[in-house]
Design brief:
InterPro entries: ABC_transporter_permease, MetI-like, MetI-like_sf. It is found in: Cell membrane. The chain is an all-alpha fold. It folds into two domains: about 1-40, no CATH class; about 55-295, MetI-like fold (Orthogonal Bundle), CATH 1.10.3720. It has helices at about 5-10, 15-40, 55-65, 65-95, 105-115, 120-130, 135-140, 160-185, 190-195, 200-210, 215-230, 235-240, 250-260, 265-295.
Length: about 300
C-alpha cells in the first residue's frame, strides 16, 4: 500500500504542474487575504489599515451595536425560513418532475430561469411586484378588493419576509435541479421493490429515498447556507436595508462600515465573524464527506 503512494504522487505530472499557478494564487489571495483580515480585526483601523492593536475592542463594540444585532436576527430569520422552505419547495418540484411529465424540459427551464438572473435583477423585479402602488396590492384592489393590503417591504415588522419571497423565487430552481439529479440517480429497482411491498409513495420518499440522497442533501445544504450568510446584493437592490434598519444583514453591515463609515477595523471584525460562521458549516461538511470516505478506504 505504502509503495504505491510515490507512484500516485507523480501521476498526471503535467496537470499538477499546470495547477501550480492557481494554487499559488488561491493561497496568496484567499488564504493570505483571510489572515490579513483576521489580524487587522484586532486593530484600530479607520480609513486606512494600521497596526494599532486594541485587542477584542472591535468585537465588543460589534456585539454592542444594535445595527449588527438586528442584522444577525434578520439573517437568522431569513436563513431558517429559507432553508426549510427552499428544501421543501425544491424537493416537491423535483419529485413532481421526476414523474416523467409532459414538457419536462420546458417546465424545468422555466423553474430554473430565475436562478440565471442576478440578485440585483431579482431584487428590483420583486421590489416592483411588492410595491403597493403598482404591484400585487394595486392589481388585487383593481379587481374589487379595496381593503386588500400586501406591502411587506414597507412594513418594518415583516420586511425581511418580503426579501425571503424573492430569495425563494430565485433559489428554489437550483435546489430542484440538485434534488432531481439525486432522484434520477436512484435505482428503479428500489421503486419497484417499494411498490411490491405496498409502501405508499410518501413513505417511500421519507424512509427510503431521502436517506439514500444524503450526499445530495448535504451538498445542497452547504451551497444554500453559504449563499444565505453572504447575502448582500438582493438586500441592497430590493430594500437598501430599510425601512430603517429592518432588513440589515451582516454582509451589508461590513460594506457600510468599511466604505461608508470608514471604519475598517469594525468591518474586519464583522467579516471575521461571517468567516467563522461559514467555517462552522464547511469544515464539518468536509470532514463528513471526505474524512468518512478515507476511513472507509
Amino acid at each position: 500500500m505504502a509503495s504505491t503512494r510515490p507512484n500516485q504522487l507523480f501521476r498526471n505530472k503535467s496537470a499538477k504542474i499546470a495547477a501550480i499557478p492557481m494554487i499559488v494564487t488561491a493561497l496568496f489571495v484567499f488564504v493570505g487575504g483571510t489572515i490579513w483580515t483576521v489580524v487587522y480585526s484586532f486593530t484600530k483601523s479607520g480609513l486606512l489599515p494600521r497596526l494599532k492593536w486594541v485587542g477584542l475592542d472591535q468585537y465588543e463594540r460589534l456585539w454592542a451595536t444594535r445595527k449588527w444585532l438586528v442584522s444577525i436576527e434578520n439573517l437568522a430569520i431569513y436563513g431558517l425560513c429559507m432553508l426549510v422552505l427552499v428544501f421543501v419547495i425544491g424537493f416537491i418540484l423535483a419529485a413532481l418532475i421526476d414523474q416523467k411529465i409532459r414538457f419536462e424540459d420546458t417546465i424545468r427551464t422555466v423553474i430554473l430561469y430565475p436562478y440565471a438572473l442576478s440578485f440585483v435583477v431579482t431584487g428590483l423585479v420583486w421590489q416592483w411586484i411588492l410595491n403597493p402602488d403598482f404591484g400585487v396590492q394595486n392589481v388585487v384592489r383593481g379587481w374589487g378588493w379595496e381593503s386588500f393590503t400586501f406591502d411587506p417591504l414597507y412594513n418594518a415588522d415583516i420586511a425581511i419576509y418580503g426579501v425571503l419571497i424573492a430569495g425563494l423565487w430565485q433559489g428554489s430552481g437550483l435546489v430542484m435541479v440538485l434534488m432531481l439529479a439525486g432522484l434520477r440517480g436512484i435505482d428503479q429497482d428500489v421503486w419497484k421493490a417499494s411498490r411490491v411491498d405496498g409502501i405508499p409513495a410518501w413513505k417511500a420518499y421519507i424512509f427510503i429515498i431521502i436517506p439514500m440522497m444524503r450526499p445530495v442533501f448535504v451538498t445542497t445544504l452547504v451551497i444554500v447556507v453559504t449563499g444565505i450568510v453572504k447575502i448582500y446584493d438582493l438586500i441592497v437592490a430590493q430594500t437598501g436595508g430599510g425601512p430603517g434598519i429592518a432588513t440589515e444583514v451582516p454582509a451589508k453591515y461590513v460594506y457600510d462600515m468599511m466604505f461608508q463609515a470608514n471604519n475598517l477595523g469594525q468591518g474586519f471584525a464583522a467579516s471575521t465573524m461571517m468567516l467563522v460562521t461559514v467555517a462552522l458549516i464547511v469544515i464539518p461538511w468536509a470532514i463528513l464527506e471526505f474524512g468518512g470516505s478515507k476511513r472507509h478506504d
